[in-house]
Amino acid sequence: MIYQGESIRVDFVEPGFAELTFDAAGSVNKFDQKTLEEFSDALTKLAALSDLKGVIVTSAKPTFIVGADITEFLQLFANPELTKDWVAKASRVFDQLEDLPVPTVGAVKGFALGGGCEALLACDYRVADPTATIGLPEVKLGLIPGFGGTMRLPRVIGPDNALEWITTGKNNSAEDAMKVGVVDAVVAPEKLTEAALNLAKAAAAGEQDWKAKRAPKLAPLAANDTELLMSLTTAKGMVAAKAGKHYPAPHKAIEAIENGAREAREGALKAENAAFFDLTQTDACQAQVGIFLADQLVKSKSKKRAKTASKEIKHAAVLGAGIMGGGIAYQSAYKGVPVVMKDIRQDALDLGMKEAGKILEKAVKRGKADNKKVVKVLSSITPTLLNEAVKDVDIVVEAVVENPKVKGSVLAEIEQVVSDDAIITSNTSTISITELAKNLKHPEKFCGMHFFNPVHKMPLVEIIRGEKTSDETVAAVVAYALKLGKTPIVVNDCPGFLVNRVLFPYLAGFAEMLKEGVDFVAIDKVMEKQFGWPMGPAYLSDVVGIDTADHCTKVMAEGFPTRMPRDEANAVAQLANAERYGQKNGKGFYDYGTDKKGRTTKDAAEKAYQLTGSQPGKTIDADEIIARCMIPMVNEVVRCLEEGIVDTAAEADIAMLYGLGFPPFRGGPFRYLETMGLEKFIELADRYRDLGEIYHVTDGLREMAKSGKSYLAPSAK
User: Distance of alpha carbon 563 from its chain centroid, rounded?
Assistant: First the structure.
């Protein structure tokens, strides 16, 4: 044995040829600080061997290396000097691999992402099996490659391809990686190690010029000035259009490549180190790393819950074939759970099947499905007018009109049809699950299952626990949501649950500005362009449906009469009374139509100005617009955490990201609050205190600020 560590071992596989194997104690290999130290020690041992002829780099896991250990990042980045030192030292470990005096071959299977990809790039040759997925996804964390990726990749595959890989952060198949030159060969899984060893032998025997293969990575970028300028200009234009000003990482990636292009390896690495460090100190990086960690927490909790379920969902039913019901039925069938779609009208069933067909047609055009998949999905949806057709299902998702009496009647009726151990859920967006459960004989087998529209695109499902919902029911429904490819977050019952409860104070803050005559277009522009929402509050109201939003204000007013009172003069109520329901009937705050190419058009509606009191062109300071919308939202999400509606701040942030499209570079409402600083937020909120209770900070938040605690600390609830 040449070297044995906790995550790495090195030994000769044949005289003169060593195998460096990554085999961490956990389920995957990753570059935590300990593994990087071992990697350096192992390479030092190899470099000292006089009889070494070649090295292959392999993994004992089903996957190669998933990247750096992101759980270490936030604590590390909080210490700037330590971060500078770490990135400089860590990136030079990969130089040790590249500088071995013998040919090196990486053998990749499964994921080789981030640092895993960078380890491969430090090898002279790379072979892969068809399972390999290779990429540099660091921009999705608000970072750039930090172990030499911005230096090596352009020298291996050229600046055009490298800039695309790095600025988009996309994952690439083995075949696609071979097309651009990241991988030299793709072989059958059982031949992967043998192929790597044979290539190392051929190089050692002089049959392959491994020194010539390595040389470009040690030198300045070979591209001429014109080629480099064109590549950089194109990349800058693409990044400006797609990432915009809120996401600095892809811009910094281009900067690192540009600054290092005319430098040899050490100079190019210094350019990368500097850009990487700059990003570690940005709010966007903190937010995006925080999202990753929060997402991991949510996934872990969901998997643990799902494992406790004793009932497996193999057959489902959806009641109501409207937009939501049809979308849920499609998603269930697409993910392999056959579904009965039940409605009282044949035309609704026809529309539901037509919508499923449309979604599949688009999937085929994008290469996400083939005709075989289309047939399988459509044949897995059984449209019916008969209650009897649902008698053998494991779960029912009720998705009828948002009316407690109608829902109560439908739920009671269907309970008489299904088996005693069937689970019944309601896709309600605001109505109390505890109240709806009063219509049922077995409330313990009932919970909320709130999907978001469009169902096939939106990742979140709120699982709402009523007062009598059993743990077993929650576990089974979480498992079903995971089967559907969704991110389930379990919340406790209250009007609006989590996402809609938090949304309506935000919309109330918006509505008050309209009363003062502020232009709704100006508000949308600020909230989209400056704050970063995908849709401003007026546009969002149109997309949700003005009638739906108006109904929800009544439910919220009943639940929180002093904080969210019903206002008949409110803009949404006025538009609803005028039957301007938003996108669903083509008129709301905006008028909707289609242009000559069939694309949706959106124009500020003169009628909306007349009804709401909003005045074209009238605006106020952008910071005030942001404050008046966001303070009520943050206050309400804090209340939800304090009341136990949601378990953790991390889950609340993910819910808002996946359910409403909260700007990822801000990380969610709690990350936004912490980035601003609790004391600064309180000071800002107190300035608007006279506008109403939604601007009043809780005593709990004031206490958190006074004691210097963090909502996002691991020890926080």
Answer: 32
51 occurs within a structural domain: yes
Using CA atoms, how far apart are residues 247 and 285, in angstroms rounded to an integer? Answer: 9
> Quick check: is 450 catalytic?
yes
Q: Which of 315, 442, 450, 551 is catalytic?
A: 450
pLDDT digit string, tens, across residues 441-491: 999 999 999 999 899 999 999 999 999 999 999 999 999 999 999 999 999
Provide the domain limits for residue 465.
Answer: 312-495
Residue 263 covered by a domain: yes
Tokens of 466: 């009523």
Mention every residue, 6+ apart, whose C-beta is less than 8 A from residue 679.
Answer: 705
Confidence of residue 402 (pLDDT cuts 50, 70, 90): confident
DSSP one-letter code for 245: T
10 Å CB burial of residue 46 (0-12, 13-18, 19+) is buried
Residues 382 and 465 in one domain: yes
Whether pTM > 0.85 for this model: the answer is yes
Residue 538 lies in a domain: yes
E strands of 334-473, at which residues?
339-342, 381-384, 395-398, 423-426, 446-451, 460-465
Report the relative pairing of strands 133-135 and 171-173 from DSSP bridges: antiparallel
CA distance 275 to 268: 11
- Shared domain check, 262 and 321: no
Q: Which of 287, 307, 340 is nearest to 656 (CA)?
A: 287
104 and 64 fall within a common domain: yes
